[in-house]
Specification:
Helices cover about 40% and strands about 25% of the residues. It is an alpha/beta fold. The strands form 2 sheets. Strands 6-7-8-3-9-10 form a 6-stranded mixed beta sheet, sandwiched between helices. The protein is globular and about 55 Å long. It binds adenosine-5'-diphosphate (ADP) and magnesium ion (MG). Magnesium ion (MG) binds near residues 47, 48 and 168. GO terms for molecular function: ABC-type amino acid transporter activity; ATP binding; ATP hydrolysis activity.
Length: about 250
């Protein structure tokens, strides 16, 4: 039963190993509707693995992930359904090179949502407009900057009408000036009230846009709280060390 008070996304005692290596060790995380949770932690701490589990790109060993009342990890839950409701933007920008920006966005609308061509085209134009690429709809990926390609990726995810958006270091492959356009789009999504779980080293975004920060280290959540707490007044020594090391 869906409950009025249940979080939109609930991650419960999640465990994941690769061979002998325990990558996630009992992660619990609740995300309320409209939350913008920024996930930080050292390289190899399990951030990408956590996001991949939520998007059902990686199978968990034990624990649960619920999107409202849907058990994301259940055998009878269709991963493709999950991926419509939980959009994901990756560090590596994976557009189809032989398709224009619009065609890249249209693909899911046609194949997954089953829209006819005209409706998909209109919707793709709208989503590209939303990410500031209304004048690039006919461009091929090779004609776009890294930041523009990343924004096409965001438009493609948004076109599915997701309830939650996951971002895995969306700007870390980009030059600083190209990051800005992507960060502006993410800030706009925050304004629109989108529920987001964001892995990023962009502390400006974290300070300005996050409702909460989660610090993950060695597969465990060390500390979670509002940005002021984690940045200015962390309860854990390890958190303080981490923020010192990246500032
Ligand atoms: P982060 O995103 O925080 O840098 P990851 O989740 O990518 O961390 O990786 C956590 C650990 O899991 C790393 O030690 C990494 O090498 C390992 N790992 C991630 N994906 C795989 C995989 N598909 N196979 C084996 N090991 C993996
Ligand atoms: Mg990662």
């Amino acid at each position: 039963m869906a409950s009025e008070t249940a979080p939109l996304l609930r991650i419960e005692d999640l465990w994941k190993s690769y061979g002998d290596e325990e990558v996630l060790r009992g992660v619990d995380l609740d995300i309320e509707r409209g939350d913008v949770e920024v996930l930080v932690g050292p390289s190899g701490s399990g951030k990408s693995t956590l996001l991949r589990c939520v998007n059902r790109l990686t199978e968990v060993d034990s624990g649960h992930i619920y999107l409202r009342d849907v058990d994301v990890c259940a055998d009878d839950t269709d991963p493709n359904e999950v991926r419509q409701q939980i959009g994901m933007v990756f560090q590596d920008i994976n557009l189809f090179a032989h398709l224009t920006a619009r065609q890249n966005v249209m693909l899911g609308l046609r194949r997954v949502k089953g829209m006819d061509k005209d409706a998909a085209r209109t919707r793709a134009n709208e989503e590209l407009d939303r990410v500031g690429l209304g004048d690039q709809t006919d461009s091929y990926p090779a004609q776009l900057s890294g930041g523009q390609k990343q924004r096409v990726g965001i438009a493609r995810a948004l076109a599915m009408d997701p309830e939650v958006m996951l971002f895995d270091e969306p700007t870390s492959a980009l030059d600083p000036e190209l990051s800005n356009g992507v960060l502006e789009v993410m800030a706009q999504l925050v304004e629109e009230g989108m529920t987001m779980l964001v892995v990023t080293h962009e502390m400006r975004f974290a300070r300005g846009g996050a409702s909460g920060i989660t610090f993950l280290d060695d597969g465990q959540i060390v500390e979670r709280g509002p940005p002021e707490q984690l940045f200015e007044n962390p309860e854990e020594e390890r958190t303080a060390q981490f923020f010192q090391s990246i500032s």
